[in-house]
Amino acid sequence: MASRLRDWIFPAGDRGGAGFLATLAVAAVAVPVLNQLVPASSPVHLSPYGLTLIGKYLCYAMLALSVDLIWGYCGILSLGHAAFFSVGGYAMGMYLMRQIGPRGVYGDPILPDFMVFLNWKSLPWFWYGFNHFSFALLMIVVAPGVLAFVFGWFAFRSRVTGVYFSIITQALTYAMMLAFFRNDMGFGGNNGFTDFKEILGFDLHSDLTRVVLVVLSVLALGASYLACRAIVTSRAGRVMRAIRDAETRTRFIGYPVESFKLWAFVFSAVIAGVAGALYVPQIGIINPDEFSPINSIEVVIWVAVGGRGTLYGAIAGAVLVNYAKTYFTGAIPEVWLYALGALFVLVTVFLPRGFAGLLRAKDKQQ
Question: Phi and psi for 203 in degrees, rounded to 5?
Fold first, then answer.
């Protein structure tokens, strides 16, 4: 039994995936040790800033994984996954705002500060239930899933494909960004949610809470990766690749193409929503800028740099590009955008299959 489980987690011939899971296992152990046991005076001590960066990279990696599932394996280029990421983030943010209670600036035990400031008299109906963590967890999955289902049902049943689908997903996230900027929506307007205090009674500013959130992000990323790999290696995964390579022929054979596309789209949206929910308590803020169309385009760049259609490549691309972004914004703030652009152009020209393509080519040679 143990050997079968080991063979399933680390299948033969998947060196990239095995290396990624081994790296996650090391991170799950190293992060708590380096932050909690290593003295702050040590050069290898992991600072609170380092914890925040690692947590952010892990959440972005989950977002890239969700996009790679539908783009790399099903051929659906979504340029609106920032919407699902943000919806999951807002669901977690609503729970965190309810936890502030009377400790807010205005001391209202029910209404968040921005509602008191805007002269709201009562809590909107869609905020009910978010004082319970279990309800928030449910909404983190249901809200992006329902949004993706409704949007995907109309889009796929109407046979919207290719660049047209990409454009309407951009329109979706842009429309949501404009809507969430409105103060009368009840989501904090352009300021969004911030000033979070605690989660499940634990101080969000303590190192121990941050360590737990990073470890949870590691586990969520690992579970998402294994779930996606199980899908792409199953019969459903073969149908998804057939849709990507020859959609019309797959439909004529008799497969319900729209149903497969809708199911994959909803599942990827749920992963993106969970990533957003883990992102908010670690970063400490969520606002309408997260819906920005440029964010969705950046995710596609991460996947292209890492290697489309490899899962672990998309994750590596997200971490690599965001680390480069962090480094360039500090080292060369005037030209960091050009440096990132140069990285993307070089990878596109010399590594059309991304960095993961190098590993695949080496495996074929062996």
Answer: -65, 120
Give the C-alpha separation, 30 to 50, whole Å. Answer: 13
Indicate the burial class of 296 (C-beta count within 10 angstroms; 0-12, 13-18, 19 or more).
Answer: buried
Residue 309 structure tokens: 């259609």
Residue 196 in contact with residue 284, Cβ under 8 Å?
yes
How far apart CA 131 and CA 95 sit, in angstroms, is 6
Q: Is the pTM of this model over 0.90?
A: yes
pLDDT tens digit sequence for 194-224: 999 999 999 999 999 999 999 999 999 999 9
Question: Rounded to whole angstroms, how far apart are CA atoms 171 and 321?
Answer: 25
d(CA 182, CA 290): 15
Q: Please count the residues of the chain.
A: 366
CB 218 within 8 A of CB 21: no
d(CA 196, CA 95): 10
Question: How does pLDDT run across 327-348, given as a tens digit for each residue?
Answer: 888 787 777 778 777 877 888 7
Q: Which residue(s) pair with 198 in the sheet?
A: 203
User: What DSSP letter does each residue of 276-329 carry, written as one string?
Assistant: HHHHHHHH-EE-GGGG-HHHHHHHHHHHHHH-TT-SHHHHHHHHHHHHHHHHHH
Instruction: Decide if 212 contacts 222 (C-beta within 8 A).
Output: no
DSSP code for 36: I
Identify the sign of the CA torsion 334, 337, 340, 341. Answer: negative
Rounded to the nearest 10°, the torsion over CA 274, 277, 278, 281 is 180
Find, among 356, 277, 344, 292, the residue nearest to 68 by Cα. Answer: 356
